[in-house]
């Protein structure tokens, strides 16, 4: 079977951090699956958020203060949505990723 090329521009870090997701009038207390400088994948099995849905995420890294980001649902996968951060500076969220004791996932 041929491998599909990965088109991601930024590496992801596998992390399981608490995250509060506010999307419209819905509020979810969830956990991340992975994080990149410009987005996050979140575990959400019981509900579905449609692509394009605006959201506010509050990430709770193991060290330091919570980090608030505005995002949109980029993809709606079976295990949860992938969010694209909006208005993140060109350096992304390196302070979060630098403090993470996790495994880097290429692609």
Query: Roughly what percent helix?
Result: under 10%
What is the strand tally?
A: 8
Broad shape: globular
Number of helices: 1
Strand content: over 45%
Q: Which strand order does the major sheet show?
A: 2-3-4-7-6-5
In the predicted model, the low-confidence regions spanning at least 5 consecutive residues are 100-107
CATH topology name: Thrombin, subunit H
Structural class: mainly beta
Question: What integer value in Å does the Rg equal?
Answer: 13 Å
Encode the helix/strand succession as letters. EEEEEEEHE
Q: What is the CATH homologous superfamily assignment? A: predicted glycosyltransferase like domains
Quick recap of the structure?
By secondary structure, the chain is mainly beta.
Could you describe the 3D structure shown?
The chain is mainly β. The protein has a single domain (13-87), classed as Thrombin, subunit H (Beta Barrel). Helix content is 5%, strand content 49%. The chain contains one helix and eight strands, in the order βββββββαβ. It has one helix at 94-98; strands at residues 12-14, 18-23, 26-36, 39-43, 54-59, 67-77, 80-86, 103-105. Strands 2-3-4-7-6-5 form a six-stranded antiparallel beta barrel. Strand 3 and strand 4 (39-43) form a beta hairpin. The longest helix is centred in the C-terminal third of the chain and has 5 residues, at 94-98. The chain is globular. Residues 100-107 have low confidence and may be disordered.
